[in-house]
Amino acid sequence: MLIHTIKENFAEINSLLKQLTNDEYCLKHQNLSFATIGEHIRHIIEMYEVVLNSYENGIVNYDLRSRDILIQTDVASAIKKIETISRLIDLENKELVLQQGKTSVNLNIHTNFHRELLYNLEHSIHHQALIKVALLQFPNVKVSEDFGVAKSTIEYRSQCVQ
Length: 162
Known about the structure:
This is DinB family protein. The chain is mainly alpha-helical. The protein has helices spanning 2-17, 22-26, 37-54, 69-73, 75-88, 113-134, 151-161; strands spanning 59-60, 95-100, 107-112.
């Protein structure tokens, strides 16, 4: 179920990306402290890449992301990365160690692959909420009302309507 939900989330992101030009993708938004949609998408992608690239050695360190400028400036590159992650993500759960620290390790925490995927899904939704603010400048771009909204919030809202 987790993998399926992540793939649905990626499809939602790719649907958005296919509506954007590179100029829109790279536009700095005042309401986002002059960040771009591309920067948020790159961050989402690279967090998932860290988990996938760490699967074999079992050590996850989000501080060691690559920060690939191409992902944040070229819509087609971002779409391709998301499609690749989506293809590779269906792996067995296994124990991992989460480390913090770029130059020296400050923290080691036991975790597992599925826990880190869930973290990345929730993290992605948070960034999508920020992206949704940027999309107010582009009335031609259409996303779901639930874009950037946590599943628990969607469920809560549906209960309130009844």
